[in-house]
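for the recovery benchmark. tokens below, seq after
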């Protein structure tokens, strides 16, 4: 193995943890993710593409009702990206069926060769493996991700789906990395689906994603491609309309 390869850190030791310890860790870690998502979705900000510069989000585009924005996250060299869309013909209950890690990953790149739930920790808490093949775009080629997915309903009815990678040591203990793959990191990401007070069949969708694919890829290339990742809402909206009663907890 080439010692200069960025994939080398993922050959470090793995941690074996009990389901109870893993559950407690993920609940703790996902709390901050949920709060970040709720902050990003704050529907009190100006909804005309102007955004709110004071919260760190910079609006890049506002086209056909979709707002695209980015924000530098702490000391990370990659940006977080956000899309927001007011949907007029889909209820929150419909859209939440396709607001999940696996359906989003299918939209990122068509060469998703594996997407499965590898462990259910609770009714609303799962661990998922995503793996892309050799024919995927450079950002995803031979990448795999071990992520948690936590689904919560807030007191006001807002639906939140928090998704992020597990620490590499815990991920290695759950599922050892294949020799030819690169384990990327999905930082605090996910969905917020807000019901509108005056309309049962409309909702405000917020999707946030921050992806570090690892490997030798220029950061400007990753940030540019991340902008495209948040444009998947329209495809998922069509999927929700076509399958209003879809239950998405699938394997394989």
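predicted aa per position
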């Amino acid at each position: 193995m080439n010692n200069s390869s960025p994939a080398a850190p993922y050959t470090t030791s793995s941690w074996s943890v009990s389901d109870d310890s893993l559950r407690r860790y993920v609940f703790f870690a996902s709390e901050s993710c949920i709060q970040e998502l709720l902050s990003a979705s704050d529907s009190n900000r100006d909804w005309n593409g102007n955004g709110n510069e004071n919260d760190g989000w910079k609006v890049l585009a506002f086209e056909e009702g979709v707002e695209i924005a980015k924000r530098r996250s702490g000391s990370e060299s990659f940006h977080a990206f956000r899309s927001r869309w007011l949907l007029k013909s889909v209820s929150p209950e419909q859209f939440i069926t396709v607001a999940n890690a696996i359906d989003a990953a299918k939209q990122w790149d068509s060469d998703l060769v594996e997407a499965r739930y590898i462990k259910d920790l609770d009714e609303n808490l799962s661990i998922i493996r995503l793996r892309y093949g050799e024919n995927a775009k450079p950002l995803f080629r031979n990448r795999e991700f071990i992520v948690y997915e936590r689904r919560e309903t807030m007191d006001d009815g807002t639906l939140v789906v928090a998704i992020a990678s597990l620490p590499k040591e815990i991920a290695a203990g759950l599922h050892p990395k294949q020799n030819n793959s690169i384990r990327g990191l999905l930082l605090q990401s996910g969905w917020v689906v807000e019901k509108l007070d005056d309309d049962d069949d409309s909702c405000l969708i917020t999707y946030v994603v921050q992806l570090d694919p690892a490997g030798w890829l220029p950061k400007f290339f990753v940030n540019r491609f991340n902008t495209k990742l948040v444009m998947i809402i329209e495809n998922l909206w069509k999927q929700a309309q076509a399958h209003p009663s879809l239950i998405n907890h699938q394997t394989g």
